[in-house]
Specification:
The chain has 253 residues and is an alpha/beta fold. It contains 9 helices and 9 strands.
Length: 253
């Protein structure tokens, strides 16, 4: 149900480096992490980039929308100065750069498909899935269920439409459905997606909900756990894995 690493560095390097950048991945590596979670969004020219916020202002300077700017325009912006002077001049990371760095360093990837808006959901899922499937074509051809899952990444998303598009485009890449709260028709959605895991906010998780997910036969992954005592607690409930911002306090094991 969860053949992947137990702990992943959130957005590459947690709070220790500018999120979703190559610098973040290098920071995670320095702390021994060989598992990461990161976000993928599309630029105006449909280039897959690592980005969480659809608007400028937090991790990118200025005012505007990511989806209204080309990759070339976005690459001119400083994606590191917001974090600290040490990372000033860091540029946005493309999905291709992330894939190469992670494969070259043996890093497992939880790739969150992050549409800038609902109108981009299906296309974001299609583009990201097609690129990842092409990159891992050899691993997909050699895939044997139950043996080499860690050779392939996992898609996750809050967007049902984006994950369905990823399923159609790259059915060989496993999927995890993101829900802030486990309620409503979550089981029907999981079945439609043919997902292998449910990803949820640990703050809204209870022992009963964790038990329901596990009894339904799914892996259970939580975000974003920054306290070791809390991590220990939810693991006791049956949680299989989680991501953390505090890679300096919670190790990869």
């Amino acid at each position: 149900m969860w053949p992947y690493p137990k702990v992943a560095a959130h957005r590459g390097g947690g709070t220790l480096a500018p999120e979703n950048t190559l610098a973040a991945f290098r920071c995670g590596l320095e702390y021994g992490f060989r598992a990461v979670e990161f976000d993928v969004m599309l630029s105006a020219d449909e280039q897959a980039i690592l980005m969480h916020d659809a608007q400028f202002g937090r991790t990118l300077p200025g005012v505007g929308k990511v989806a209204e700017h080309s990759l070339q325009q976005l690459q001119q912006l400083d994606a590191g100065a917001w974090h600290s002077e040490r990372f000033a001049g860091e540029r946005i990371c493309t999905l291709d750069q992330a894939l190469h760095l992670c494969r070259d360093n043996g890093i497992w990837m939880n790739i969150e498909i992050k549409p800038a808006d609902d109108i981009y959901a299906e296309r974001t899922g299609e583009v990201a899935a097609a690129q990842v499937a092409a990159f891992f074509a050899d691993a997909l051809a050699a895939y044997v269920p139950g043996q080499n899952e860690r050779s392939l990444p996992l898609f996750s998303s809050f967007s049902f439409a984006a994950l369905m598009a990823a399923k159609r485009t790259a059915p060989g890449i496993a999927r995890g459905f993101l829900l802030d709260k486990i309620d409503g028709d979550w089981l029907a959605q999981m079945q439609a997606l043919e997902a292998i895991a449910l990803h949820t906010n640990h703050k809204n998780l209870t022992p009963a909900l964790a038990r329901a997910v596990k009894q339904a036969g799914y892996g259970l992954f939580c975000y974003t756990v920054n306290d070791l005592a809390r991590a220990t607690e939810i693991l006791g409930w049956g949680v299989d894995g989680y991501c953390t911002d505090r890679i300096d306090l919670i190790g990869p094991a």
